[in-house]
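Task: sequence design from structure.
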């Protein structure tokens, strides 16, 4: 059995791993690169392995950096099934079509405004491509054994977001475990990840491999930010991932107002995707900590903006409010239009509620940039900027180490991926020192024989 690292090496995006034997070829995750241009350009290049060679794809979860390349993979020749849990499939039906729509809209906008160097600017893939890819999906249950050629695959809950899984891949007696994105042990919404069991090799994410989450109470912190922003007549803008993060923020805002910690303030979710995803959290209540009744009450805290016209009107209204809008790192979507309107006003607040990948607008704003480029124009940042990692759905360094420490026996080797170079190497060192594990940070496109 071999593994080749096709993505998420030296970066937190573009997750792709090829697992192969003499009989089978499996792709674990199929994500888009995000962030700096050198990485995003990889999205436009053919995969180093011909897509038709893969017998199947298995998805750890639905986030675009793990699933967003699937429409291109199918378009370019992949003909096999795409396996995932039921909530992941339901989420991908939303996310992949939305991703394709954004690619089409961004290309059309660039062509209208003439700020792209490509003539014409083309989308990475279309909504038609996404619809075709979705026909390849097949649903599996947690802990069900799935056969892909001579490989056996099993999904187990990973916390993080709805439907997220760690994935065991076995070949005979050899056992390889992909952590996927691991959730937190005390997450506000999701249950803790299942222990790893007894794999021979582990591929673990390291998004927070060099950091610990803050100990501040997220509800109290959000209450303080809302109160301060409203007191100066401003709007609180929260760029947010539509899956997981938006629902966590709604839960926190519900608690803020329910406990009287801040003045009741109009809340708007201006993301069609986040709107649809929130409905899924209500449908799949057994997959997270909240009861169906509490889910309903949390959803009632906000107005869900549907149309483009409603979105435009929201931006022109000056009354104090909270706007939650995708995308989480300000790389695209409706949040860009809100940033253009709100960032130049010192009364407003931009809250970045989690990690911002290098090269994204969110990272630039968090780092104190005086202006960011949006739709070909430089937009000044005069609003107050706050970044809080306490809303993260990722396990931090201590939680990653705790999860590794739950192995029934030490694995032969732990491959550390899905983190920037510093985060991955820091986790490598501390896992080796504290847990006595053989740890390794692979190179991009490196292939390793698991024997």
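Answer:
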């Amino acid at each position: 059995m071999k593994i080749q690292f096709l993505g998420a090496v030296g970066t937190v995006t573009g997750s792709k791993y090829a697992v192969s034997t003499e009989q089978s070829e499996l792709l674990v995750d199929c994500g888009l690169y995000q962030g700096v241009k050198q990485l995003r350009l990889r999205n436009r290049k053919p995969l180093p392995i011909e897509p038709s060679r893969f017998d199947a794809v298995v998805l750890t979860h639905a986030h675009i950096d793990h699933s967003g390349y699937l429409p291109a993979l199918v378009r370019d020749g992949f003909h096999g099934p795409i396996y995932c849990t039921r909530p992941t499939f339901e989420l991908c039906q939303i996310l992949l079509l939305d991703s394709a729509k954004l690619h089409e809209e961004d290309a059309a906008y660039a062509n209208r405004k003439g700020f792209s160097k490509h003539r014409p600017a083309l989308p990475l893939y279309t909504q038609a491509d996404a619809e075709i890819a979705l026909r390849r999906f097949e649903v599996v249950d947690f802990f069900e054994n799935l056969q892909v050629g001579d490989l056996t695959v099993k999904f187990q809950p990973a916390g993080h977001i709805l439907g997220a899984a760690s994935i065991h891949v076995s070949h005979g007696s050899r056992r390889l475990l992909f952590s996927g994105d691991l959730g937190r042990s005390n997450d506000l919404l999701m249950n803790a990840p299942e222990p790893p069991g007894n794999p021979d090799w582990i591929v673990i994410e390291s998004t927070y491999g060099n950091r610990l989450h803050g100990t501040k109470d997220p509800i109290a912190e959000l209450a303080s930010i809302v109160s301060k922003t409203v007191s100066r007549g401003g709007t609180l803008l929260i760029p947010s991932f539509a899956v997981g993060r938006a629902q966590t923020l709604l839960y926190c805002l519900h608690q803020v107002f329910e406990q009287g910690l801040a003045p009741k303030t109009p809340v708007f979710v201006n993301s069609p995707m986040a709107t649809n995803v929130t409905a899924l959290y209500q449908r799949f209540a057994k997959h997270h900590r909240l009861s169906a009744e509490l889910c309903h009450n949390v959803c009632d805290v906000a107005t869900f903006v549907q149309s483009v016209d409603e979105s435009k009107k929201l931006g022109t209204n000056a009354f104090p409010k909270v706007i939650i809008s995708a995308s989480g790192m300000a790389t695209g979507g409706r949040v860009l239009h809100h940033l253009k309107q709100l960032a130049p006003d010192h009364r407003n607040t931009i809250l970045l509620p989690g990690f911002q990948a290098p090269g994204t607008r969110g990272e630039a704003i968090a780092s104190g940039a005086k202006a960011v480029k949006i739709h070909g124009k430089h937009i000044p940042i005069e609003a107050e900027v706050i970044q809080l990692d306490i809303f993260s759905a990722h396990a931090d360094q201590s939680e990653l180490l705790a999860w590794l420490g739950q192995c029934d026996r030490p694995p032969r080797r732990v491959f550390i991926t899905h983190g920037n170079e510093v985060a991955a190497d820091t986790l490598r060192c501390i896992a080796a020192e504290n847990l006595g594990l053989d740890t390794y940070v692979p190179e991009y496109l490196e292939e390793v024989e698991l024997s």
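The first strand starts at residue 2 and ends at 5.
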